[in-house]
Amino acid sequence: xxxxxxxxxxxxxxxxxxxxxxxxxxxxxxxxxxxxxxxxxxxxxxxxxxxxxxxxxxxxxxxxxxxxxxxxxxxxxxxxxxxxxxxxxxxxxxxxxxxxxxxxxxxxxxxxxxxxxxxxxxxxxxxxxxxxxxxxxxxxxxxxxxxxxxxxxxxxxxxxxxxxxxxxxxxxxxxxxxxxxxxxxxxxxxxxxxxxxxxxxxxxxxxxxxxxxxxxxxxxxxxxxxxxxxxxxxxxxxxxxxxxxxxxxxxxxxxxxxxxxxxxxxxxxxxxxxxxxxxxxxxxxxxxxxxxxxxxxxxxxxxxxxxxxxxxxxxxxxxxxxxxxxxxxxxxxxxxxxxxxxxxxxxxxxxxxxxxx
Length: 357
Prior knowledge:
Layout: H1 2-24, H2 33-60, H3 64-89, H4 96-113, H5 116-138, H6 149-173, H7 178-183, H8 186-210, H9 220-237, E1 241-247, H10 251-257, H11 260-277, E2 282-287, E3 290-296, H12 301-315, E4 328-334, H13 337-349
Antiparallel strand pairs: 1-3, 1-4, 2-3
Helix pairs in contact: 1-2, 1-8, 2-3, 2-8, 3-4, 3-5, 4-5, 5-6, 6-8, 9-13, 10-11, 11-12
Transmembrane segments: 6-26, 38-58, 64-83, 95-114
Keywords: Membrane, Transmembrane, Transmembrane helix
């Protein structure tokens, strides 16, 4: 019976993972916006719930402390990550994911250093605490204005209350008492977990349908999409385009000596310099510390580089920087939008690729 209940939790979590990732519905590497954040956090939370259910089955079959420890950690991680995702949507300080990870690691270690019954109670406390925090975050503006948050908050609140009741029963009668087996057993908890996963999935899908899937301007994802569109427009008029990849070799030193904001400001100045000096140019920052320019094929390389260097040098005093960093240029010719996408993807996956000497 216990294994059947756990299988129900596995099925619910697997369905949740599938629906959440199918709900995103955007092809390519330029997904972004609030919907992507929702899918990212709640999708990983669903994966954690799925792993937890599998590990609970493994524990029932004699998996021992290892299965219990990983299962407890992922069990706490799932509602913690839901709370972190809601904090992200509410544009609050980014401590949620760090706290979720720290809580899971702490639960993992505690399972090894204390009796399993005590670890179950600490796990239950963690689930109740993070579920309560997530329910409260769902009722905070601006997320609270989205349809589906009432169901989400209600489901998490009920789940928190159920886990809190398990702690009360354990404190009053013990974890091996008849009352515990009747109202707080592992089998009943698996069923409650499966129902909660289903309710949270429905609520999340309702929320996702109302959230924007477009990346915010100024983000890497937004620039990747914009560059793809600009490449398409250029290729309608020209048989091929030149992609100029520009990097600032000193950017890591600038980031360390000044700030991340100063480095981003310098990259923005480089993009603006290209747009001001080169005609028919598309420009953006599709990957960390990497600027792309799109030009009709046949542009004179030396003139392009010198024009950008001069405009970039002119912009430096305007942002309060006395020196003019050197620029490193790469030139590529492509005949379709996929070629631009492949170049951007290669830089996105290797953002710190060493420069040749």
